[in-house]
């Protein structure tokens, strides 16, 4: 039985993530922590001996730089990289640039909320859409999914490209802490 792998990596923490702002299509750079998270993601992929034939990313520099730093750790700068705006973060419109916690306090938390080895470096919401599709997750469940920054999510697919299993390349305590950090960004303080 054939087994394909797709690895999803949410970009490392951006300067606007650090400031708890809705980033959307604003081209925020990685924070110092985000650079370290991206390098660690590459190290985790290397430790797990994962190799790639092709990579995809958005056109926003936080995802592009995350992918570059992962490639640096893997010594895989030679693989083709495809950039597309459809992997960009969702557009937040008038919320872009606003503080998430202040906005949640003012408006309520409910309002805030193939044949190759493939690496995708993108954003929380664009990766959430891929997870929704791959795992056939309901609208309600997907809204509660918090993909952590800088921790690779590996999907193993069968010959029909159906998921066999998926897992993060980190221990569960680290994944839970990173997910909680993302979930807490939109909470009223």
Automatic annotation (TrEMBL):
Name its species: Bugula neritina (Brown bryozoan)
Listed GO MF terms? bisphosphoglycerate mutase activity; phosphoglycerate mutase activity
The record, for PROSITE patterns, names: PG_MUTASE
Q: What protein is this chain from?
A: Phosphoglycerate mutase
Q: Where does substrate bind?
A: 10-17, 23-24, 62, 89-92, 100, 124-125
Q: Hey, where's the site called Transition state stabilizer on this chain?
A: 123
UniProt KW keywords: Glycolysis, Isomerase
Q: Which CDD domains match?
A: HP_PGM_like (cd07067)
Q: Which family does it belong to?
A: Belongs to the phosphoglycerate mutase family. BPG-dependent PGAM subfamily.
Which Pfam families does the record associate with it? His_Phos_1 (PF00300)
**Under which EC number(s) is this enzyme classified?**
5.4.2.11, 5.4.2.4
NCBIfam families hit by this protein: pgm_1
């Amino acid at each position: 039985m054939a087994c394909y792998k797709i690895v999803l990596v949410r970009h490392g923490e951006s300067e606007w993530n650090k400031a708890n702002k809705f980033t959307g299509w604003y081209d925020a750079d990685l924070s110092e922590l985000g650079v370290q998270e991206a390098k660690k993601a590459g190290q985790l992929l290397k430790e797990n001996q994962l190799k790639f034939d092709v990579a995809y990313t958005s056109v926003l520099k936080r995802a592009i730089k995350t992918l570059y730093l992962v490639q640096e750790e893997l010594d895989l700068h030679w693989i083709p990289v495809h950039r597309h705006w459809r992997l960009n973060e969702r557009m937040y419109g008038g919320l872009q640039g606003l503080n998430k916690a202040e906005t949640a306090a003012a408006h309520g938390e409910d309002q805030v909320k193939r044949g190759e080895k493939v690496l995708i470096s993108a954003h929380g919401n664009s990766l959430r859409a891929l997870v929704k599709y791959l795992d056939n997750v309901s609208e309600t469940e997907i809204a509660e999914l918090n993909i952590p920054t800088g921790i690779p999510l590996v999907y193993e697919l069968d010959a029909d490209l159906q998921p066999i299993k998926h897992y993060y390349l980190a221990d569960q305590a680290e994944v839970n802490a990173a997910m909680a950090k993302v979930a807490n960004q939109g909470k009223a303080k």
